[in-house]
């Protein structure tokens, strides 16, 4: 991977959308990405068409070192973005060539490096415990060394705005050291997140006027203004904007990639993404929330589930006249949709669209669509979510068609459950053992099978396979590749034993051809998992029986 | 209640903090305030010291009519704020005096009325289906009538910014009609929420320059800039700012009262609240979230639980030097506090800081710190996470101290497990039943207890309580208030049965004094939950035994 500029965006290298979800975003409380998660995040963000993906801090974090190694080994093929490694300048009193941390940046094989440097005199003197001359030399030396090694280098000027207000000469000296040594963007960081847009825009304008450098912006959200500050900086002349997915990040978080892109693309009419990608904004935001295991913010600007939803009141009568009078943009532009007042229409349209995407032709079947819509709404009100469970949705849609069309493929489960029992023992010797027994009817036989597993769901899955495989050999092809659990607390408050909660389970399965995701919801986590497992097999069975369903499925 | 100006604020009537949580905030999807809720919200917001509280739309919403009736009857005694009724101008072709909706505003007995009027020509013509002259006359007539009846009147100019961009003359004509008839603030509303701060500030400046009117601002958050837009409008000359608690509102929501106040008070140094009230910001925000039955946003600017939490190793060592170098403000100013997250990124410095926060003195105990750090890193590499599990971390730290200090409080579990068994039946009739049996040694007795539950963890928790309560009555005080599950896939790929996965469970508990969170990790979800439950009881036991641990703990 040697790309150092964005590919496929109309603005080319003249404007950078730079994603740091994997480094700065991962500092959000509660996020703990595995290396596999990191690869998946990078693929999603690349699919959206951003120009740069900062993958982590090799050398400082073992997982990040492994991420870059696996990326370099070919596990990550970026179509649009250049891959960036983050690191700090060399230590005081050393040389870049000998600094182990700088060596780790080289070893990562990332073609682009973003170096963080202190640009506030107080930080240089009190945290770094050195003087301004040495701080500038650390920047110069490290940038020059990495540029000499063929890397493209960006400089993150940490605490820039606070430092510039305190002592502008020091802050500019750090920028100059980096720029003259070959860094081609100096990124002004509002590290403590204390800026407001009018003042920040003024500073960005002034720095560009005084230096002529190419300037980037990196905002934290401590005043609730990170998105506004980022956009204001671009209006003031910044041509590189660093964001994180859904604003994940330390403290109040970072500038949120999705509204920043929305504002730049829709409000400032800048073609910051490759053609057609803006409509992926909502989907990618939600998928990244799933990967972070954080519930999507339903009121997030542009991409939230409620963001174009209108509740009764002042607008009710008028909105039918012209929806665009009551929304700041057409929600479909960013892949979102309008809900509530025009739900019938919006819901139907999006369901038809979704069906089309899944290869299920709903056009000319209004009763099937209406019935499916009712079921989806009812299930979603009870905690189901089909947003990430295409295979369960496909089964539901095809089931509605099968009601009215005898030639449509059958969607029923390939077996009938009589009962199951799971026994979990924490034994005297400390071992924890799970054992499951299922009684099912399959292909005209009543089968009883028992298996052990690492946990109750694993045992149940193993017992079911043992029961089915002799009669349905294709079951053996199905692998369970991912399993996600979310506890949803109901509208009423949690009681002493959390009994109001329902559990939503997402199961991702694969065979030689496809990956597909199914969902199950129940008050009991094992039953919720069971429901998702059954849907996974029903989906495979449908394909085995009829060859359909291999269409547009994703994980 | 006849007050028409704010009481007790240094800025008096010259600047208005105006809260519309009860009207515009209530339009958020999922909020449904009872009249009692509305009274409680008004008391909390008044306690914070805002200048105006918009209580609702009398006549249009029965609950709002009742709210005003009960307020007028003496159920609501506001100490700082003036009470405001919201309504629209009279209908086209009628007179204000005869308009039932205008009569309802009078009947509400609210001393201040905010009238909403369309100020975008397209809305006047296409939604109102009248002409600009009549629209202006509707405003003039209604304002004049209410002022004549002794009310103070504000005018909300709906869709102002979109309208002004489309046809400024119409929009200014509506403002002028209201101002000349006696409205003493004209509020420029970004109703569709599509504005960005630099452009919005420019428009506010221009309108003030052209009219000389007193101008207010009302922003929706559809670009993610409502807070920034509100503050920018104030910098541009607006002296009245309309917000909702926690940004509740239709679609993406409204400008969030708390960061708006934080920014005005701390960044622009405006005394917008009565003296001493700024420190209530965090508490009032969380209390209002409880009343709305919406989980507080942990990353909300100024007031979020995580908003001053530091995770990065980069910062943690330097934070000890000077916390204000790494926070944009002193968190106690807004009633929040700083936390340190212990993660794999952390070092000795963060662990000492964290210990200090938890009331565990690690200074001068380098062996205990080193040993604890090794354990934390080892556990975190196996999927444990202490950043949200302060109570488990406290047990670990105190355990290390207890090794070297015989006087330190004991941290052991209050009982010994012999074994447990959980049986889960999906019965023939479709019912799913969970039953657990535990065998434990407690207070010198061997106890066996069995209980049923909604799921395996619920059953296990119930059986354990049944076994322990007769011997440890304090167990009954402990409530399980939240339960979170995360499946972590290991570095290697998930196998056919997902056997590489471990499960991380976070359990939040509370008693009359405290909330505390514990963590458990295991390949088996039930065992992981068991470990977290046991830590929860061990933490309580430690407090019961020694009185320690009630220090800095939060959920």
UniProtKB/TrEMBL annotation, chains A, B:
Pyruvate carboxyltransferase domain boundaries: 15-282
The keyword 4Fe-4S is assigned to this record: no
Domain of life: Bacteria
Alphabetically ordered keywords of this record: Acyltransferase, Amino-acid biosynthesis, Branched-chain amino acid biosynthesis, Isoleucine biosynthesis, Transferase
Classification via SMART domains: LeuA_dimer (SM00917)
EC code: 2.3.3.21
InterPro entries: 2-isopropylmalate_synth_dimer (IPR013709), AIPM/Hcit_synth_CS (IPR002034), Aldolase_TIM (IPR013785), Citramal_synthase (IPR005675), LeuA/HCS_post-cat (IPR054691), LeuA_allosteric_dom_sf (IPR036230), PYR_CT (IPR000891)
One Pfam short name: HCS_D2
Keyword Membrane annotated: no
Protein family (similarity comment): Belongs to the alpha-IPM synthase/homocitrate synthase family.
The name this protein goes by in its record: Citramalate synthase
Organism: Actinokineospora spheciospongiae
């Amino acid at each position: 991977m040697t790309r150092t500029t964005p590919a496929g965006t109309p603005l080319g290298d003249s404007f950078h959308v730079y994603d740091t979800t994997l480094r700065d975003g991962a500092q959000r409380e509660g996020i703990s990405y595995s290396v596999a998660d990191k690869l998946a995040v990078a693929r999603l963000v690349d699919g959206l068409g951003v120009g740069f993906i900062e993958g982590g801090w090799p050398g400082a974090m073992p997982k990040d070192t492994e991420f870059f190694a696996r990326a370099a080994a070919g596990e990550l093929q970026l179509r649009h973005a250049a891959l960036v490694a983050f690191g700090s300048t060399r230590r005081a009193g050393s040389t870049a060539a000998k600094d182990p941390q700088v060596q780790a940046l080289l070893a990562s094989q990332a073609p682009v490096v973003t170096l963080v440097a202190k640009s506030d005199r107080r930080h240089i003197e009190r945290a770094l415990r050195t003087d301004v001359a040495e701080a500038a030399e650390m920047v110069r030396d490290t940038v020059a060394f990495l540029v000499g090694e063929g890397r493209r280098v960006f400089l993150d000027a940490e605490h820039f705005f606070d430092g510039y207000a305190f002592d502008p000469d020091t802050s500019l000296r750090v920028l100059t050291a980096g720029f003259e040594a070959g860094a081609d963007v100096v990124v002004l960081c509002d590290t403590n997140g204390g800026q407001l847009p009018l003042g920040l825009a003024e500073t960005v304008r002034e720095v560009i006027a005084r230096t002529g450098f190419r300037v980037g912006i990196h905002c934290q959200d401590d005043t609730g203004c990170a998105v506004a500050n980022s956009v204001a900086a671009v209006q003031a002349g910044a041509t590189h904007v660093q964001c994180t997915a859904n604003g994940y990040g330390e403290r109040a978080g970072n500038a949120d990639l999705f509204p920043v892109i929305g504002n730049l693309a829709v409000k400032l009419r800048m073609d910051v993404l490759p053609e057609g990608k803006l409509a992926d904004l909502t989907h990618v935001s939600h998928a990244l929330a799933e990967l972070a295991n954080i519930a999507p913010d339903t009121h997030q600007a542009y991409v939230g589930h409620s963001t174009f939803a209108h509740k009764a009141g002042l607008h009710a009568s008028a909105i039918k006249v012209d929806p665009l009078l009551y929304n700041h943009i057409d929600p479909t532009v960013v892949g979102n949709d309008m809900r509530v007042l025009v739900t019938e229409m919006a819901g139907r349209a999006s369901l038809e669209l979704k069906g089309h995407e899944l290869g299920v032709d709903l056009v000319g079947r209004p009763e099937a669509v209406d019935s499916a819509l009712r079921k989806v709404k009812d299930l979603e009100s009870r905690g189901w979510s089909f947003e990430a469970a295409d295979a369960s949705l496909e089964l539901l849609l095809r089931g509605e068609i099968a009601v009215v069309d005898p030639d449509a493929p059958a969607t029923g489960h390939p077996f009938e459950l009589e009962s199951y029992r799971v026994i979990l023992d924490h034994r005297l010797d400390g071992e924890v053992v799970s054992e499951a027994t299922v009684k099912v009817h399959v292909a005209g036989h009543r089968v009883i099978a028992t298996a052990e597993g690492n946990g109750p769901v694993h045992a149940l899955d193993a017992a079911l396979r043992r029961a089915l495989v002799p009669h349905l050999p294709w079951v053996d092809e199905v692998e369970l590749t991912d399993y996600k659990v979310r506890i949803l607390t109901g509208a009423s408050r949690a009681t002493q034993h959390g009994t109001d909660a329902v559990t939503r389970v997402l199961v991702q399965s694969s065979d030689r051809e496809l990956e597909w995701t199914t969902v199950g919801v129940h008050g009991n986590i094992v039953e919720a998992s069971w429901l998702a497992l059954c849907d996974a097999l029903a989906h495979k069975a449908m394909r085995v029986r009829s060859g359909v369903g291999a269409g547009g499925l994703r994980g």
